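During the second year of the project, the team shifted from modelling isolated chains to modelling whole assemblies. The rationale, set out in the original proposal, was that interfaces cannot be judged from single-chain predictions alone. As a representative example for this report, we include one of the complexes processed in the last quarter. Its constituent sequences, exactly as entered into the pipeline, are reproduced here:
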Amino acid sequence: MLDKGKISTRQLTIIVALFMVGSSILIIPSYLATYASQDAWISALLSIATGLAVLPLYIALGNKYPGKTLAQFMEDILGMWLGKAVSLFFLAAFPFTMAAFSLRNIGDFMTTQIMPDTPIQAIHIIFLIVVIIGVRLGLEPIMRAAEIIFPWFILLFVCFVIFISPQIKWENILPVLEGGMKPVIGAGVPFTAFPFMETAVFLMIFPHVNRPDRVGRALFWGIVIGGAVLFIITMMSVLVMGPDTTARLIYPSYALAKKISIGNFLERIEGLMAIIWFFTIYFKLTLLYYISVIGFAQSLSLKEYRFLTIPLGIILIVYSILISPNTSFWFEMYTTWALHAITLGLVLPALLLAVAAIRGKGAAKAAATSASEEQTQPDT
Amino acid sequence: MWSSLAMIAVAAAILKLEAPYLKKRQLTKELRVFYFLLLSGTILSIAMLMNVELPNPMRLVHAVYKPLSDWYTSVLK
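Output from the structure prediction step:
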């Protein structure tokens, strides 16, 4: 293995939670409110349930090939050349593209809300330099940093919710289910894909977990914590600002933080609250970039991965600028991106599992021989 | 013009930083991948700096899934 780092199940739970919250915390409330208006919270609950329902698929796939990452067992399942081609396509189209989107989310956020005169490239470059430092250090340091940051994230989030709660107007979520179940499900589909289907990328770090039997549990709690944070932020946006205002804003969570006002003393603390998503986007981006880089190295069977970080980083910066011509393109892309994420995050793993089951023994034998080959080569 | 030259200087600095280690360990395949990625990254960024219209892969994704997304948004409205 390229990176021999081991992570504990607790660290996996924390990183999954931070990954789930990621950039979704900024944009999800607006979407759910656009499609489901005051019933956004029901959509959020439905999506969390669906997100948890697909977990057994990933666990089954991960357990079938213990000690191997997605990029490695794709070669066992699909054969060497097809496997390499599919895994390179998967990495470029899913984690790498998501990384570009996450980078763009923070760039768009900074240039539209906080630093309007700074070129977006400058923000991307500075943010990515920190990410590259993390990726070069390896998986273990990233996870330990996540473990240290997590309590602060929770503290800030809890403060956020407590400070805004005096302004809750319960009539904002009434009437419940005014338009029936259909818009609620319609709003839930993209939210299920982004971020819940994106958990598929964790198949790339399963072998690093020190207790493989407890991976399912760790993922489950990670998704529950992350989902709960997203649910609460959606609920709060709708409860405080009402569904119409929430739907009209690009970053409802930030607008919500601006509204915090406690006794003429705690005012305009949105800059402080923005730290919440700086942390979560940082960890999401670092993990996605780490997965892209290490997956790329595994697909091409390279012996080292750190030298890839800077050249791929240059490409990532160009990609993140290119990926959406303006701030609103991402909003137009949202439903189609959701289907793309479902294809790669749900249909592809399901297909892989089906092919593996059909090939059965043949694939298992191939896995055994490739494993023994790896043992005979001491350097790899 | 100046920005392109600056980009080339940055690429040269990265080359100076990373290549000696790979050369020392005689990782020829890795070195080739590194050169290829660095070259494409530099070309892409120079193209971006000179405002060349680069194709956006997301447009393709958008075009492929558009009919399906239109269908489900119309059904679930």
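Chain A touches chain B through 34 residues (CB under 8 Å). Chain A has a mean pLDDT of 88.
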